[in-house]
Design brief:
Blueprint (H helix, E strand, L loop, with lengths): L3 E10 L2 E11 L4 E5 L6 H8 L7 E6 L2 E5 L8 H8 L2 E4 L11 H13 L6 H21 L15 H14 L4 E5 L7 H15 L5 E4 L3 H7 L2 E6 L2 E6 L1 H6 L4 H9 L3
Parallel strand pairs: 3-8, 3-9, 6-7, 7-8
Antiparallel strand pairs: 1-2, 1-4, 4-5, 9-10
Helix pairs in contact: 3-4, 3-5, 4-5, 5-6
């Protein structure tokens, strides 16, 4: 059994059927890139996997345990849905940092809120807060921003903001880290610095899903690649299979568009 499995995922917005029976699997420590034209369903699939959107049909399991099942979704408590959602971290294309908080607080806020739900005395809470801050500093060192901990988002470049967003997602210790076109709002130089951080994470056996238009990056970093078109997966396989031996006509046309 694969670490992450999605089976028969469907999603409709009104009359528009965006996902039409998507199936894929991913092993622990692997990187999966999702490619395709705009409107093909890539972001919607990622949002259904992270449960920011609820699929209309289908099932998702993580390490053999259900994290989503359309048949049971109405019977789950809000707390159970939240617990399952925390298995996934999501880095958005437009950063979504809190402008009123500095870098350190952006990274620690969600973790502090989660810890605040636990019953602790004052001494225990102080120890937990110290631990949260130490972990945030470690993550900010990792993404090269330790010297920016007191800066606010408006004082950072787009690439720096995205690196803060990556550290924030990692702080919650997700089992799967997801990226929704993490460089689409960046210029080429800033794109390189963000992709370098993601490549570094890939060397640590972090399980990741990445929606991207960076074809060379997807080729270099991925263990598997999915090509989507009109809400279905047309072809999937290793980077060599998808990029060097495309068999589906839509994938061939898509890849040819990058060579013109």
């Amino acid at each position: 059994m694969a670490f992450l499995e999605a089976t028969n995922i469907h999603k409709r917005f009104g009359e528009n059927e965006v996902l039409r029976g998507v199936d894929f699997s991913l092993e622990s420590g692997q990187v999966l890139s999702i490619i395709g034209s705009s409107g093909s369903g890539k972001t919607t699939l990622l949002r259904c996997i992270t449960q920011l959107e609820q699929a209309d049909a289908g099932r998702i399991t993580l390490n053999g345990q259900p994290v989503f099942d359309a048949a049971e979704s109405l019977t789950l408590t809000r707390e159970e849905k939240r617990r399952r959602q925390l298995n996934f971290g999501l880095v958005f294309q437009n950063f979504n940092l809190f402008p009123q908080h500095n870098v350190l607080n952006n990274v620690t806020l969600a973790v502090r809120l989660q810890a605040g739900r636990q019953k602790m005395n004052r001494q225990q809470r102080a120890a937990v807060n110290r631990s949260i801050e130490e972990e945030a500093l470690r993550l900010l060192r990792r993404v090269g921003l330790e010297e920016k901990i007191h800066n606010y988002p408006w004082e950072l470049s787009g690439g720096q903001q995205q690196r803060v967003a990556i550290a924030r997602a990692l702080a919650l210790k997700p089992q799967v880290l997801c990226f929704d076109e993490p460089t689409s709002a960046l210029d080429p130089e800033l794109t390189r610095e963000v992709l370098a951080v993601i490549k570094d994470l890939a060397t640590t056996n972090m399980t990741m899903m990445i929606v991207t238009h960076e074809m060379q990056f997807a080729r270099e970093v991925s263990h598997r690649v999915l090509f989507m078109d009109e809400g279905v997966i047309c072809q999937q396989g290793t980077p060599q299979e998808v990029f060097d031996r495309p068999t589906h006509p839509r994938l061939q046309a898509f890849l040819n568009s990058f060579q013109k």
